[in-house]
Amino acid sequence: MKMTLKELGEMFDARLQGDEQLLIRSVGTLESAQADQLSFLANSKYRSQLETTQAGAVLLSEKEAKDFQGNALIVKDPYVAFARVAQRLDTTPKAATGIHASAQIDATAQLGQGVAIGANAVIGAGVIVGEHCQIGPGCVIGEYSILGSNTRLWANVTLYHDVHLGQNCIIHSGAVIGSDGFGYANDRGTWVKIPQTGGVRIGDNVEIGANTAVDRGALGHTEIGDGVILDNQVQIAHNAIIGKHTAIAGGSIIAGSTKLGQYCIVGGNSAIAGHLTIADGVHVSGGTNVTSEIRAPGTYSSSTVAMENKLWRRNTVRFRQLDDLFSRVKVLEKQQNKED
Question: Most buried of 1, 26, 57, 299 (most Cβ within 10 A)?
Fold first, then answer.
């Protein structure tokens, strides 16, 4: 697909500078873009690249556009505009086209208009697939699950039974949704499995990364709100509730029955303990362990910075001595108070 700079400018309500008939076929970085590509400047640390870029045109803010003489689309937020242009010029292939002869589709399943199903996919009894869904090769959709319209499953996604996906969702390869939660009782040293009889309910416009696992609820449902984005290798445990438009980066864990608010951001390799409530608008820095409730929005961190191993080992020893040091200080304070 190619579009003129004028067409793109009108689409995104941008002020156009330069050749309005310039044809743009794709997007690229300031450093690598060519004459038929559109780039952007959203971070001032890359401003020097603006002087040497070979991009046909650049998305710029009003401030950055003042001294730029080349072709430009001037917008309020260049990064958001870049994302929307990239969507419009996207050439990613479909997860599936048509219905492959090797797909196994139960007679009771209901398929909407324009559904595509790849090779060796399995669609269980009572499944409802909305219009224009794409189900990639090797996917398995368990009994009585529901897919909203325009939802896309890439290859080898597994949905267990009673999993509901909203509209316009994207589920990447290897994701498993609706597997059993980690629920057991201990009978004098023997683990007794608790059947996980709840389901999973996922809203509209949700994207779930590769090899991410979302466990089904033990009794009620595990819930993921509209607009949530989950990176690769994220674990969402049973009965967790993830609020609307929250983002969770790779390798993070949300333990069972925790309620994570709306518009939260969880940095990579973080862990949030179970049965907690996290307020709306909380930002958790990467590598943070959250072990208690967070009642107010803001940024929360618990990681130590990287340091030379020899120094880290010394500090680790001192961490073990903190309790003893605290006790000694308390004694000294009492003695000082008596003397005063």
Answer: 57
